[in-house]
Amino acid sequence: MIEEPPVLTLRRSFPRPSAAQIAAFRDVPTGFVCDAMGGQGALSSDIQPIGGGRDIDCRAVGPALVADNGPAEILATMGALHILEPGDIILSAVHGHRNCSASGDQFCGMMKNKGAAGFVTDGEMRDYDGIVEVGLPAWCTGLSPNSPYSNGPARAGFGAVIGGVRVESGDLIVADRNGVVVVPLAEIDRVIGRLSKVKELEGVLEAKVREGFCQMAAIEEMIADGRAVIED
């Protein structure tokens, strides 16, 4: 006979990025971060700033605190509040379940009171006007007024697959109006080391575009050596 799991399991202590590591990603566009990771790292584009970011400045950087709720559940997120440290970003995994809210305005208010830097879910949210009043940056797949349950089993402080990406508590989250990016804890310093090059290249290209640049040298080379053909 399979033993019944605990209704709720919490892990308070897990490795986290340092303050200096977090600071290195502040005000860095998510596109730059993805470029520094070989063009990858973003959660599914189904996960967007709530309301398209029109009413809340949806930007956040901080350690992931993963709440693995399961479909139509919220117990792990409730538990995550008890182990949350200021600056954490709660990632609520509901396994992509739709037509049920993963959080509303009151819960966002509690997260903000505890010091959360943001909230991300692969499910939906509700109480839009109230969430705007609270002002906590949030990312979700849409809105639904239906209520979740809190039956468990649930785990917080561990890991889960969210938006097609495996996220572990302690990974670094960088999120803005373009989406949510996960930087694995072990990769943070390597990504920081590549960011300066990405910024440099972007700066050079931006200056060239402003000066009128409009054709890629690579395409011209392909035409010249026959790899590309222009048909009139």
Percent helix range: 25-40%
CATH domain class name: Alpha Beta
Mean pLDDT: 92
Structural class: alpha/beta
In CATH, the architecture is 3-Layer(bba) Sandwich
- How many helical stretches? 7
Radius of gyration: 20 Å
CATH domain topology:
Glucose Oxidase, domain 1
Separation of the first and last Cα atoms: 73 Å
Unreliable stretches? none
| Largest sheet composition | 9 strands, mixed
**Would you count the extended β strands for me?**
11
Number of domains: 1
- The percent range for strand residues is 15-25%
Binding site for Mg(2+): 127
GO molecular function, one term: lyase activity
Cofactor: a divalent metal cation; Mg(2+)
Binding site for substrate: 126
Descriptors:
232 residues, alpha/beta, 7 helices, lyase activity
Could you characterize the architecture of this molecule?
The N and C termini lie far apart (73 Å). With 232 residues, the protein is α/β, with parallel strands linked by helices. It has helices at residues 19-23, 30-36, 75-83, 105-114, 128-134, 188-210, 217-224; strands spanning 8-10, 48-49, 60-68, 89-93, 118-121, 138-140, 154-156, 159-162, 165-168, 172-176, 179-183. The model has no long low-confidence stretch (mean pLDDT 92). Helix 2 packs across helix 6 (188-210). It has 7 helices and 11 strands.
